[in-house]
Amino acid sequence: SVAYFNGTFVDSNDPVVPIDERGHQFGDGVYELIRIYNSKPFMLEEHLDRLYMSAKAIALPFDQERESFKEIIFQLIERSGLDNLDVYMQITRGMAPRNHLFPDAPVSISMTAKPFRSIPPELREKGAKAILHPDERWMNCYIKSLNLLPNILAKQEAHKAGCLEAILHRDGKLTEGTSTNVYVIKDSRIQTTPLSRHILAGITRMAVQKIAMEAAIPFEEKHVDIEELYEADEVFITSTTNEVMPIVQVGDKLIGDGQPGPMTRLLQRHFQELTTTTVSA
Ligand code: PMP
């Protein structure tokens, strides 16, 4: 599949990244994953806002003008020959002999274009399972940093347990999933972790909040504890790749009657409408 590295379009298997590259050696960079539905990038501006914010938060000198950066994305989409795809992009602190101190080097920009990461459709229909896992990450999870080791380890634990996701908790309260935001529904109210340094401000979360507002469903940002998770009427997670995914079992406890609930269904439907109708800049 097609990819981009520092000014050139390449094949994603081409060996273009040198050993002394800080994304490779330190995970010293930030990233985004943007989904393109029917050739239209979904919530592109929001993703780019977050990318520039993340870069700034780690003092990455990513000063590429936004329009020319978007031009690269559009060219990559075009070259992919795909209508529905995931565009992954990362910006790192560039190439320099390995040394913790910031190098005097230009940032590296890489991107890939791939067909949708497939999530089994029956999970979206019947709901998925999750485990609980302690949140062992750092204090700046609002940054979409390349450093994902705690997320990877927790997700692998979930996978070993036959589950899709690990729901993380800190001080007895849910934070988010390893690559998703998490929500409970109680008495027809959506409740989700308030934005803070402890979670990523999901773009899909933003979409769900908007859908809830338009459908006059209360959307409450509040700390949810583990008991409240178990006693929820419905639970779901969201992300760019998972969209709105019902969670019907956490550990060995069924949520509600173990079926996706009506509000999660409604949100799934409305989200799908957004992805099929939104025209992005
Ligand atoms: N939290 C974490 C830790 C993530 O990695 C992701 C996926 N990027 C999300 C939440 C969901 O964010 P989004 O809806 O923007 O994909």
From TrEMBL:
UniProt catalytic activity: D-alanine + 2-oxoglutarate = D-glutamate + pyruvate
GO BP: amino acid biosynthetic process; carboxylic acid biosynthetic process; D-amino acid metabolic process
Cofactor: pyridoxal 5'-phosphate
TM spans (from-to): none
GO molecular function: D-alanine-2-oxoglutarate aminotransferase activity; pyridoxal phosphate binding
Keywords, ordered alphabetically: Aminotransferase, Pyridoxal phosphate, Transferase
PANTHER family linked to this entry: AMINO-ACID AMINOTRANSFERASE (PTHR42743), D-ALANINE AMINOTRANSFERASE (PTHR42743:SF10)
Described function: Acts on the D-isomers of alanine, leucine, aspartate, glutamate, aminobutyrate, norvaline and asparagine. The enzyme transfers an amino group from a substrate D-amino acid to the pyridoxal phosphate cofactor to form pyridoxamine and an alpha-keto acid in the first half-reaction.
Transferase listed as a keyword: yes
GO cellular component, one term: cytosol
One Pfam family this sequence matches: Aminotran_4
Protein species of origin: Brevibacillus borstelensis AK1
Protein's name in the database: D-alanine aminotransferase
EC number: 2.6.1.21
Family of this protein: Belongs to the class-IV pyridoxal-phosphate-dependent aminotransferase family.
Assembly, per entry: Homodimer.
NCBIfam families: D_amino_aminoT (TIGR01121)
EC top class named in words: transferase
